[in-house]
Amino acid sequence: MAAEMEAIEELKKRQVKSPLGGEKVYKDECAFSFDNPESPDGLYICMNTFLGLGKRYLQQYFEKTGHGVFLNIRRLRKEIPKDETLAAEKPSKLAIGVEGGFQTDEKRFEFEERASIVVLPQWFEIPYPSDGIPDQVQLSATMIMMAEDAAKQEEAAAMAGTWEGEKLRISKHAENLQQLSTGKKIPPSGWRCERCDLTTNLWLNLTDGSILCGRRFFDGSGGNNHAMEHYQQVKYPLAVKLGTITATSGDVFSYDEDDMVEDPYLAKHLAHFGINVAALEKTDKTMTELEIDINQKIGEWDVIQEAGSQLKPLYGPGYTGIRNLGNSCYMNSVLQVLFNIPDFQKRYFSVADKIVLNAPANPVADFNTQMTKLAFGLLSGEYSKNRYAQFKKKNWIINYPPSGIRPQMFKTLVGKGHPEFSTKKQQDAQEFFLHLVSLVEKNSRGSANACDCFRFQVEERVMCTATKKVRYSRREDYCLSLSVPMEAAINKEEVRKYHEQKAQAPSGLVDPKTIVRPIIPLFECLNVFQEAELVENFYSSAIRGKTAALKTTRLSTFPDYLMIQLRKFTIGDDWVPRKLDVSIQVPDELDLMALRGKGLQAEEEELPSGDSAAEPVVNICEATVTQLVDMGFPFDACRRAVYHTKSSGVEAATNWLMEHIDDSDFAAPFKPPQTREAQSPKAAFEPNQAGLALLMSIGFTSDQALKALKATDNNAERAVDWILSHADEIQEPMETETEAAASASRFRDGSEKYKLVAFISHMGTSTSVGHYVCHVLKDGHWVIYNDEKVALSEHPPKDLAYLYLYQRV
């Protein structure tokens, strides 16, 4: 009692604040680690800044800020016995870890929260609530307990106005659908196919009221195709699946549009046959649920996740899983690969013990702090231990440790302001990798850049076919993107027979055990990259006119780690994005000597420079770019298409994209050619010499600095932001030998020989659905990272991956 009185007296001397003015309260997760209220010591919330902290960081925080009063929240959990849990619902979405998607096998718990006031440096602890606690402290604690966690608020704000999944289009037949007066009245149950007496997978034609069965699937389920045969005879376009109709929805298929559609007048169309939708309940699987059932049986899902194997779980440093934050598997896979690279470990994990002392006033919004937090979470082993430490009291326990980390703060931070990564929709792993690279670059000024290990220089050689003169240009990149030449498959005959068998199947599906994918060696993809590309309507400064040119692409430098993307996602002839279902023969060791660029040769003559002023300036229409991106094309490819079609509209740009989708630089960063004035800024603009020297001292080239100073009226501070936000628009001029040598110093170069050390695989038909998993080679063994599950891999599916990481040997 005396100790508590002493603590209260000390507490009366301290100043605290209350979150009464909309201040953000971080009470669900530590700002510097992944400790949370369920951790053994709970979470400590500073009663002045409202930041959450794990116990290991309290002393550092107190020494840095002087704030020493904390509200400690401990969340105790109790497992709910299995016989009290609700029956698990079947998944209804092609996603993992989101509502309606595939769920993990976690146990169910109920929770109880307990709180106390902690005062440093004495480490006094006072139960809350308690008599004698000063009123201002009582108010602060009460308001903190009542406040909604700031991370949850930010996530909700980011999600505002977004939707998840693909929205169905309204059928063109819905508004004026023909409905015949057949006198049919459909009963509320007891349905049968009118041709074969099946009682499942039944479809009601909304024109004549016929009830017929759907398509037969490879496993014998489904129907006998009678609904499709009926449409072929009568051409009545819309049908609804019986058993899926509720007061608000129902599965409607348009045979004419060959797709699932929305029928806004469904209730009226059903009422024509005496059906009252308000009285109906769902009794059958929707088409989405059926699609998920099929995807669980066929394709890549089982293979990539190594389903059926008794995978041995792994625990400890470097074997920590990442919770799926609603379709965040693309982010999880990229992070697991990056933090297994020494450059990232050295940059972020080596300073984790001083994370508080190095952090700015707002660590939650600081990229480097959150990266260090990730490094500690993944590499320390604190959140990957194969045991439960049970602190029992009246059957309540603390689950120690949490199952993997939950990087909600990081996801909110890196997605802030981004039209895609700020949503809960699934994104492309390669695009997220490049987005993360740009953030690392931006936040590495004056310190080590962990992404230096990926950076390489690309050499592009263009030869004018009329004069044989050449021009060399160089650009930097972080990912080698390769086309997949389907014509190079080495098992064409087997594939042909398989597709014949598939076409003969009533539903177009076959037994998954018999699936035959085209097998394409990786070196064929590399051969396509090396081939010369014909460039039509090339403006040749040698003849001052248009001609054709041949462009070849090589690598000037070879990085320590080479990320290779196989462009499996493409656009079909029907303009619908689709994924190539192929098997790639990927070697464990790779020799890329043939890709080494050699630069200007003694026998070559350069194209004259400075004569491109005859070319008209093209202003890229950003509205057109946005429309093309929404269609599923890469951002840089869209800008390239709009430029080359002179901003003449979506149709022209789309045609250009379809014609050039296999170009080696299709999705490479696009830098529009500049006019002669832009290429010679010194003649038209006198820069502030002090500002020029400052920009060059922090790593920008003279031309970048000149363009930025010109665009910002010689304001050096604004010029830095201008360069970072206009990186894709800055065209580097032809380098002199001295400049080329200086530029090359930014790139690590060495042997062209590599070994495979990681790969990221995607399951699903497009980037907007499915799931990502990664495999990493550690200590001579392959390890699978499937969100929070980490295990020793038995059959790493190297042939089905999307991104491959090679390390120089």
Provide a descriptive summary of the structure in words.
With 809 residues, the protein is α+β, with helices and mostly antiparallel strands. The chain contains 25 helices and 27 strands. The strands form six sheets. Strands 11, 14, 18, 22, 23, 24, 25, 26 and 27 form a nine-stranded mixed β-sheet that branches. It has a five-stranded antiparallel β-sheet with strand order 2-1-3-4-5. Helix 4 packs across helix 13 and helix 9 packs across helix 14.
CATH T-level fold name of the domain at 312-389 and 406-451 and 752-808: Cathepsin B, Chain A
Helix content: 25-40%
Sketch the major β-sheet: 9 strands, mixed
- The fourth-level CATH homologous superfamily of the domain at 312-389 and 406-451 and 752-808 is Cysteine proteinases
Tally of helical segments? 25
Structural class: alpha+beta
* CATH class designation of the domain at 312-389 and 406-451 and 752-808: Alpha Beta
Strand content: 15-25%
Overall strand count: 27
- The termini sit apart by 66 Å
Identify the overall geometry. globular
> How confident is the prediction overall: mean pLDDT?
81
CATH arch. level architecture of the domain at 312-389 and 406-451 and 752-808: Alpha-Beta Complex
